[in-house]
């Protein structure tokens, strides 16, 4: 999801939505006489909590499927091709694949070709894609499944943090913000799976702290940790630390605390185990937690051994050691550039080094950019509105109102500036942006003063700082484990706005309905925007692959890159089973290297592709200015 800028499409969508909300108020469309979003009334509806979970899961799945049918997602980012390879491997019932023949022809970013042929990434995202491929014959259906899983897990989590109806509202808000048109739900890159792990973790953790330990909650907590460990291990570890510390420090609560979300927020902090120690139920819950974590650890070690030949070496680590000279954290030591890799893989390593050098030269700008992108993705122009209204409607002091208004305006106005950070940062604007973001952090701490709200803020802040230390630029799925907490904070702010506007009925309905619809409208507007250069390239590659698939017999495509080729436009990605694939993409390594590969595939028709011109020819090119197109 392009969150770095507030472009003209988003700006006009915001203006149009504001006009609609104002018109709705003026026309008196908010008759709230008998409708009250209270906990007690909805708790009387039998099965409301279960019904809510099923509803949001169905809405997320169907919404994703409809949008994908309207605009089918095409893999365009290097990570997506790597995940698809991993998913195809799992869908065929294998953990990994034997190394390809002449591996140097098949080296590609984020893919291991030695000692086995597999993605470098943890398996959770690919398992969902594999499920979609097996159940629906389409890997993208796995993305829909992950979106449904996230919506259900989030609703279950919020039911422990908020009244039931507000948990449903927060889940619907998440669907509008992240599902349907969102990047997480319309690409193979991931995000929903790690967010699901975070929702399971925080939902179970809250229940364990608030009531007597139950084996079911301990099992869900363990499952959340397992999902995080197999989707976003680094950020997931940081996310788990506060929860584990709080559980170790202790909990003491009442069973009635779970019956009313408002009571949870009004009660003082309850920490510390009682002197009587753990009960038998508590010991059973701990035993179930440890059994699941230990079993998961064994399975992860076996997966590592099958892929890398070492129990304690992750595929990610093996890939980084072989191909990437850049460290994981930007302040760590650089590794030497590998000498045995091809030109395209060297370009990938050089790009990673350039990011590290830029981060070290502009450390403050680098950290500010990540804070900014996090804010725009988690709250931004839409979910920042409830925070602004909360300050204005709750009768806060004049200086808090002024600060919140100025901060919101400053961040969104600076967001209009293109190329704010790269290639050369605008130091004045970046400094102003950093000040505005720090003020906003202080305002959040001041306004969301409940103990649970502040714990959510601290956990989120800890993960954001961990992401800020990474050498790579910000990607939205990096902070997926704490997105459930940011959605809780956004929903809580809307709830407080609703309560504060009870005496102003002309405001309540536009706020409740307008914010989710505005989020959905902005995501739809982004989908209608002009395609990016990467999208254009991806569609050309997909069209050429489809054209080759239609050719009789098996095909072998030797890809040649010119000097200065953009390594992000990588053509050499293949399914898991190379020998039985209809089309095999390989690197052009010159006359002798190509002959070895051609001899290995004697039954394939050979094509030569000029990657910079998107042209194919059926014989070795003699004049690169006259390459015939594929008929």
Q: Could you walk me through the main structural features you see in this protein, from its secondary elements to its overall organization?
A:
By secondary structure, the chain is mainly alpha-helical. Among the domains are: 169 residues, no CATH class; 84 residues, no CATH class. It has 23 helices and six strands. Strands 4-3-5-6 form a four-stranded mixed beta sheet, covered by helices on one side. It has a two-stranded antiparallel sheet with strand order 1-2. α16 runs antiparallel to α17. The two termini are 36 Å apart.
Give a concise summary:
The protein is mainly alpha-helical and 631 residues long. Helix content is 60%, strand content 4%.
* Helix/sheet category: mainly alpha
Query: Could you tell me the strand content as a percent range?
Result: under 5%
Low-confidence stretches: 1-14, 20-37, 252-277, 623-631
Q: What summary fits the major beta sheet? A: 4 strands, mixed
Share of helix, binned: 55-70%
Shape: globular
Q: Order of strands across the biggest sheet?
A: 4-3-5-6
Features:
single chain, 631 residues, mainly alpha, four-stranded mixed beta sheet, two-stranded antiparallel sheet, 23 helices, globular, disordered C terminus
């Amino acid at each position: 999801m392009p969150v770095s800028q507030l472009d003209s499409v988003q700006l006009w969508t915001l203006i149009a939505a504001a006009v609609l909300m104002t018109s709705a108020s003026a026309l008196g469309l908010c008759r709230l006489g008998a409708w009250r979003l209270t906990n007690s009334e909805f708790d009387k509806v039998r099965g409301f909590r279960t019904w809510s979970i099923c509803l949001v899961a169905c809405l997320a799945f169907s919404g994703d499927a409809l949008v994908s049918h309207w605009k089918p997602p095409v893999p365009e980012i290097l990570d997506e091709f790597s995940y698809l390879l991993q998913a195809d491997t799992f869908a065929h019932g294998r953990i990994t694949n034997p190394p390809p023949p002449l591996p140097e022809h098949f080296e590609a970013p984020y893919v291991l070709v030695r000692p086995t042929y597999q993605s470098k990434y943890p398996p959770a995202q690919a398992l969902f894609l594999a499920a979609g491929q097996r159940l629906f014959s389409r890997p993208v259906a796995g993305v829909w499944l992950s979106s449904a899983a996230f919506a259900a897990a989030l609703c279950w989590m919020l039911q422990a943090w908020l009244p039931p109806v507000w948990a449903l509202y927060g889940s619907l808000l998440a669907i509008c913000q992240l599902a349907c048109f969102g990047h997480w739900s319309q690409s193979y890159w991931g995000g929903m799976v790690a967010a699901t792990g975070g929702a399971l973790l925080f939902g179970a953790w809250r229940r364990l702290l608030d009531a007597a330990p139950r084996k079911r909650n301990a099992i869900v907590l363990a499952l959340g940790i397992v999902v995080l460990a197999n989707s976003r291990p680094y950020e997931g570890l940081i996310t788990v630390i506060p929860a584990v510390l709080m559980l170790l420090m202790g909990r003491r609560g009442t069973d009635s605390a779970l019956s009313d979300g408002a009571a949870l927020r009004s009660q003082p902090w309850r920490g510390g185990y009682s002197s009587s120690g753990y009960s038998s139920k508590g010991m059973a819950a701990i035993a179930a937690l440890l059994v699941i974590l230990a079993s998961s650890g064994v399975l992860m070690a076996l997966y590592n051994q099958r892929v890398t030949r070492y129990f304690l070496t992750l595929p990610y680590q093996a890939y980084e050691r072989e191909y990437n000279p850049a460290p994981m954290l930007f302040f760590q030591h650089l590794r030497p550039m590998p000498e045995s890799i091809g030109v395209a893989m060297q370009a990938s390593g050089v790009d990673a080094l350039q990011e590290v050098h830029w981060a070290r030269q502009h450390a403050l700008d680098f950290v500010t950019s990540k804070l900014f992108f996090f804010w725009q993705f988690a709250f931004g122009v839409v979910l920042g509105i409830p925070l602004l209204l909360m300050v204005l409607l709750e009768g806060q002091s004049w200086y808090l109102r002024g600060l919140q208004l100025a901060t919101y305006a400053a961040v969104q106005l600076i967001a209009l500036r293109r190329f704010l950070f790269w290639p050369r940062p605008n130091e004045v604007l970046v400094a102003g942006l950093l000040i505005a973001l720090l003020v906003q952090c202080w305002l959040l701490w001041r306004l969301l003063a409940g103990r649970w709200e502040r714990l959510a803020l601290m956990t989120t802040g800890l993960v954001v700082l961990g992401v800020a230390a990474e050498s790579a630029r910000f990607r939205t799925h990096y902070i997926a484990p704490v997105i459930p907490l940011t959605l809780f904070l956004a929903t809580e702010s809307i709830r407080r706005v609703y309560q504060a506007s009870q005496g102003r009925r002309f405001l309540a309905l536009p706020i409740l309905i307008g914010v989710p619809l505005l989020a959905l409208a902005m995501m739809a507007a982004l989908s209608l925007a002009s395609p990016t250069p990467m999208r254009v390239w991806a569609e050309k590659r997909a069209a050429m692959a489809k054209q080759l698939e239609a050719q009789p017999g098996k095909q072998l495509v030797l890809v040649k890159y010119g000097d200065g080729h953009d390594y992000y436009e990588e053509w050499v990605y293949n399914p898991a089973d190379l020998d039985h694939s209809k089309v095999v993409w390989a690197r052009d390594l010159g006359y002798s290297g190509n002959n070895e590969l051609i001899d290995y595939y004697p039954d394939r028709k050979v094509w030569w592709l000029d990657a910079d011109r998107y042209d194919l020819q059926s014989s070795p090119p003699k004049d690169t200015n006259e390459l015939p197109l594929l008929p």
